[in-house]
């Protein structure tokens, strides 16, 4: 019999306990940095050095952090389910934990791409992108990140996937940023949705939602254990 399909939508909260700051919690990244100065295409046009440095710092940090119990529990879930992760995170902690199917909606820190041909994407060697690093067509490389105001190329595929899920888990996202936040709207009517987040998330608009108010490292392993017991 085919395995049941679980779509897992993750955000910054699942990596918080690995030591990566979230964006909108108190002390989060968007309290320290101005989005319009580091995370838009206009920012890139205004000050490439500042934008490159912002993402270099984020990338450098990846070498000092490890996946946590939340990431690892999702790997265990694959024993019994067809697990598809749709993450808004640009870190690689799901992959490093061992998850097989990970879609990065907002790009990937460890990759860079051409500024003249978006299909030219490269794995960066090490953490540092420099002014003067160029693609094979001679253009400056930029972070492979979906900035505010830019289209989200994978959103159609993500919506399709969500609409085929038997069960949906939403972990560690404030559901503030669209179109990612709208994905739950594609859930099948009878697909249960579990939201795991220690914050005061307003989830009343999500149909058939089960809200688990816990940190990822606690709530995810508990729910996974429960799901692995189900037939
Ligand atoms: N475990 C689980 N969730 C947590 C934890 C934790 N230990 N700590 C905090 N959270 C929750 C917060 O309560 C909040 O709901 O994680 C969520 C983080 O929300 P945001 O900081 O808004 O992050 P996210 O939803 O991933 O942001 C979406 O915004 O800035 C852009 O492109 C960026 O992908 C990002 C997008």
Main attributes?
231 residues; alpha/beta; Rossmann fold; SIR2/SIRT2 'Small Domain'; 2 domains; 6-stranded parallel sheet; 3-stranded antiparallel sheet; 9 helices; 29% helix; 18% strand; binds adenosine-5-diphosphoribose
List the helices and strands and how they pair.
Blueprint: E1 5-10, H1 13-16, H2 29-32, H3 35-38, H4 41-46, H5 48-62, H6 69-76, E2 82-87, H7 93-97, E3 102-104, E4 107-113, E5 121-123, E6 142-145, H8 155-162, E7 167-171, E8 193-196, E9 209-212, H9 216-229
Parallel strand pairs: 1-2, 1-7, 2-3, 7-8, 8-9
Antiparallel strand pairs: 4-5, 4-6
Helix pairs in contact: 6-9
Bound molecules: adenosine-5-diphosphoribose (APR).
| Computed Rg | 18 Å
Tally of DSSP β-strands: 9
Q: Provide the low-confidence segments as ranges.
A: none
Please count the helical segments: 9
Describe this structure in words.
The protein has 231 residues and is α/β, with parallel strands linked by helices. It has 2 domains: 1-19 and 67-106 and 150-231, TPP-binding domain (Rossmann fold, 3-Layer(aba) Sandwich), CATH 3.40.50; 21-64 and 115-145, SIR2/SIRT2 'Small Domain'. Helix content is 29%, strand content 18%. It has 9 helices and 9 strands. The protein has helices at 13-16, 29-32, 35-38, 41-46, 48-62, 69-76, 93-97, 155-162, 216-229, and strands at 5-10, 82-87, 102-104, 107-113, 121-123, 142-145, 167-171, 193-196, 209-212. A 6-stranded parallel sheet has the order 3-2-1-7-8-9. A hairpin with a 7-residue loop joins strand 4 and strand 5 (121-123). Helix 6 runs parallel beside helix 9 (216-229). The longest helix is centred in the N-terminal third of the chain and has 15 residues, at 48-62. The termini are close together. The structure holds adenosine-5-diphosphoribose (APR). Residues 11-14, 16-17, 22-25, 28, 88, 106, 172-174, 176-177, 197-199, 201, 215-216 line the site of adenosine-5-diphosphoribose.
